[in-house]
Amino acid sequence: MKSVLSSAALAAAVVACPAHAQNLDQVVVTANRGERPIGETLADVTVIDRDAIDRSAAAGLPELLRAYGALEISQNGGPGAVSGLFLRGTRTSQTLILVDGVRLENPSSGGGNLEYLPLSAIDRIEIVRGPASAMYGSGAIGGVIQIFTRTGDGAAKPFASVGIGSRSTWQAQAGVSGSTGPSGGAGRAGTTRYALSVGAEGTQGYEATRPVSPAYQNDRDGNLRRHVNASLVQGLGGGWEAGGSLMIAEGRVQYDDAFSTPESARMAYRTSAANGFVRGRVQADWSTELRVGRTGIDYTFSGFSYAPRMSSQTVTWQNTVALPVGRLQFGVDHLRQRIEGEGVTRGDFVVLRSVRNTDSIFGAYELTQGAHLLRVMLRQDRIETVGSEPTGGVAWGYRIDPKWLVRASYASAFRAPTFDDLYSPFGANPALRPEKSRGVDLALERRSGGSLFKATAFASRIRDAIELDASFVPQNVDSARVHGVSVEARERIGPVALRAQATWQDPRGERIDAATGATVTGPLSRRARHHAVFGADWHTGPVRMGATWVLQGARFDTDGNRIAGYGVLDLNAVVPLGQGWDLFGRLGNVTDRRYETAWGYNMPPRTLFVGVRYGMGG
User: Distance between CA 56 and CA 165 in Å, rounded?
Assistant: First the structure.
């Protein structure tokens, strides 16, 4: 553990020498619900681009987010097993997940089931830290993670990849992207942008549990997944365009379970995200977008009769108007969530309610006046059986010079009780109140070309946290406080691009003891006081090599068991073969470190993966 704490302390010394080549003047979408330069968002934003995804040694999306997104993860098993993420000390259900602008959420328990999304279908990921309910509604207490699937532009670009690795791991994908018709930017009449890809992957897996775990089964836990991703955007002329996207991932996963056998501990799953939109300019200073979307999360278990089908349907109308001073953004959201299926709406025990609607209105005002930047946000959500929840936020920034920015923000957020909390046939509590939070940020940033230095102090307080009591009935009994400092930096030194991210935090919960009425405090489960990532990418001539070192401090699990800290080193390399072909390789967990992110569950041992690819860069 001392080595982990020493390494975290090392971040303070190394952080002035940051990494991963990335255009720091790039445009991002998630922080402001519209395209803005990343340096003007007045938010703590990180972008993981396609290049980072291609070179990553991550086995799945949760591990990629841990390596590049400055957050913590937990994983209850092998590839495809249930995963959790902790953004700024908040838990999984307190971070909102979006796919191409559409909410991906499990209505029963909250969270977005990121473990089922294939990396090969993702173009980039934007992570916004801090309360964001004033723009996105329920669930955005810790922040928002938005996943953008592959799109197309320019001449047709076919691509393909195939690879094999340790423990009978394999992967194959192919696709094409591009555009037809006249060039000239989005909305030009006759221009069609398209992308289509298909893929499949599988692994025999490894023994995911330790013998001390009640869920231990002496077997390997494998995963088989296939996916399709498609997008189409048609220019209509006059700056107008219409389009949509579709992603479907389905597969089978083996897991360890105290109530099943190795033969029956299997689950089939299907995750989908689809959306369609029309957008353009009503007038020169007024742009508008109408978007309709649907996401689905389905399971079918082999060991027992439980096959939920869960969906979230959204309709959003959003407008941006340029004013004589500043600009105004306003719109409405409608969300309809449904759960059904065997063991949910059919069987001996069914949920008390299977559909819930949420109607929302939101607005924001942005102003740039000299060296000052200002953003004010307001939102009202009306949720069936829960009530109305107002949220708001204000962010201010001051440019010391073109490279340096100091910013501060304050915002409120909330999370509505889930279907399990309110409508479960086993101990539901219809009197539950939403979880509510208040958060503040104070940050100093320096951006110059490919260099970045960012230091952020943050603090948040979550009240009315929902937890199960001694009778397994959810109650508003807990609160939590998280405060800390995060540092992120990137720098290029000759052919080497360095990057560093480090977080020091104090995530603590407060619980009212049912027997004595006293307030009991303690660390929040599965969240460490220190975590950090260091990376280096070397690119000279045709060969590219990289290394990522992930560090995690000690923490406690939900049952009180202590989880030791760890450090994991991953390596990657790309060697061009000519004519658009590359040879690539990834070596994960180089030292074969045994470690856990959830007590009793092993994380992947040393893993080698090699392959060839065409048309995917190098």
Answer: 14
Separation of alpha carbons 569 and 533, rounded Å? 10
**Residue 172 tokens, joined:** 């194959």
Cα 138 from Cα 462, distance rounded (Å):
14
Assign 3-class secondary structure to 122-161: EEEEEEEECCCHHHHCCCCCCEEEEEEECCCCCCCEEEEE
Amino acid at the residue 474: P
DSSP code for 599: T
- Percent helix, strand, coil in the chain (nearest 5)? 10, 60, 35
Q: What is the 3-state secondary structure (H, E, C) of 266-286?
A: EEEEEEEEEEEEEEEEEECCE
Tell me the C-alpha distance between 297 and 324, whole Å.
Answer: 45
Q: Indicate the helix (H) or strand (E) that contains 7.
A: helix 2-14
What SS3 string covers 10-74? HHHHHCCCCCCCCCCCCEECHHHCCCEEHHHCCCEEEEECHHHHHHCCCCCHHHHHHHHCCCEEE
Largest distance between two CA atoms of the chain: 73
Determine which helix (DSSP H) or strand (DSSP E) holds 419, and give its type and residue range: helix 419-423
**Torsion sign over Cα 128, 134, 140, 141:** positive
Confidence of residue 10 (pLDDT cuts 50, 70, 90): very low
Q: What is the pLDDT of residues 348-372, one digit of tens each?
A: 889 989 999 999 999 999 999 999 9
The domain ranges of the chain are: 2-614
Report yes or no: 319 and 336 within 8 Å, Cβ to Cβ.
no
Distance CA 529, CA 293 (A): 38
pLDDT digits 0-9 by tens, 41-94: 999 999 999 888 888 878 789 999 999 988 999 998 777 888 899 999 998 999
* CATH topology (fold) of 2-614: Maltoporin; Chain A (2.40.170)
Dist. CA 297–CA 309, nearest whole Å: 6
d(CA 449, CA 346): 58
